[in-house]
């Protein structure tokens, strides 16, 4: 087997896939000028103090993989009495959200440009989050790649321990087989209770993305799942 064919040793759960992407000048400028204020440094083993970070006591919502940040910005404006911590490793997405934060003067968002799984394990205290948002994670369409999907029993068991009792986990996907897997995995987690009889109605705070609107016009479905921590 050649060196290129050797599969590297697998590490634990990862919340992302590294994708190539060119950053625009505006995104580069936003990272340079706004990054020091809104992008938090990852510090292994050091618990984050949200009150110190945001300068107030407020419910904290953690988002895993915010893409280009449009929905995150809109939700943060809608739920202005909440604070939002978003994790995204894709540089152009981080730059795009920083631009939105600046243009729309949004003060209740902070960002980790780091793997969300490590941020959760190392920096987020147990029983501390009011909510977690996971919108349109990579569906890994091919059956042989399904094991790479983020919503797996092992990950969910770790995740829910960071949600405070009464807090929620909100997932959304436009890939029905993944929606079915999400429903099965979340329903099997003893610390979670479904807020609906199956899939949930889209909560009013989650905006429709351009991609989602296009899919709906083509007859594609979108499935929301909202579970509460017991």
TrEMBL record:
Keywords: Methyltransferase, S-adenosyl-L-methionine, Transferase, tRNA processing
Coiled-coil residues: none
GO molecular function: tRNA (guanine(46)-N7)-methyltransferase activity
The protein's Enzyme Commission number: 2.1.1.33
Residue numbers binding substrate: 142, 174, 209-212
Region of interest called Interaction with RNA, as start-end residue ranges on this chain: 144-149
Residues the record lists as binding S-adenosyl-L-methionine: 63, 88, 115, 138
Top EC category: transferase
Pfam families, alphabetized: Methyltransf_4 (PF02390)
Pathway membership: tRNA modification; N(7)-methylguanine-tRNA biosynthesis
InterPro entries in UniProt: SAM-dependent_MTases_sf (IPR029063), tRNA_(Gua-N-7)_MeTrfase_Trmb (IPR003358), tRNA_methyltr_TrmB_bact (IPR055361)
Catalysis performed (reactions): guanosine(46) in tRNA + S-adenosyl-L-methionine = N(7)-methylguanosine(46) in tRNA + S-adenosyl-L-homocysteine
UniProt xrefs under HAMAP family: tRNA_methyltr_TrmB
NCBIfam families listed in its UniProt record: tRNA (guanosine(46)-N7)-methyltransferase TrmB (TIGR00091)
Function comment: Catalyzes the formation of N(7)-methylguanine at position 46 (m7G46) in tRNA.
Family: Belongs to the class I-like SAM-binding methyltransferase superfamily. TrmB family.
Protein name: tRNA (guanine-N(7)-)-methyltransferase
Species name: Roseateles agri
């Amino acid at each position: 087997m050649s060196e290129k064919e050797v599969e590297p040793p697998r590490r634990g759960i990862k919340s992302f896939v590294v994708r190539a992407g060119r950053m625009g000048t505006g995104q580069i400028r936003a990272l340079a000028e706004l990054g020091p204020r809104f992008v938090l440094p990852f510090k292994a083993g050091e618990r984050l103090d949200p009150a110190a970070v945001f300068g107030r006591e407020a419910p904290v919502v953690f988002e895993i993989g915010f893409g280009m940040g449009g929905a995150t910005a809109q939700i943060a404006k809608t739920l202005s009495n909440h604070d939002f911590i978003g994790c995204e490793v894709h540089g152009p997405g981080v730059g795009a959200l920083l631009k939105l934060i600046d243009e729309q003067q949004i003060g209740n968002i902070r960002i980790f440009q780091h793997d969300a799984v490590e941020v959760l394990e190392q920096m987020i205290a147990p029983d501390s989050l009011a909510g977690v948002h996971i919108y349109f994670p990579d569906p890994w369409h091919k059956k042989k790649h399904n094991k790479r999907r983020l919503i797996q029993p092992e990950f969910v068991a770790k995740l829910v321990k960071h949600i405070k009792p009464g807090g929620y986990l909100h997932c959304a996907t436009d890939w029905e087989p993944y929606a079915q897997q999400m429903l099965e995995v979340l329903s099997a987690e003893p610390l979670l209770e479904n807020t609906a009889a199956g899939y949930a109605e889209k909560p009013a705070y989650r905006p429709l993305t351009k991609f989602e609107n296009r899919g709906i016009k083509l007859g594609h479905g979108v499935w929301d799942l909202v579970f509460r921590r017991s």
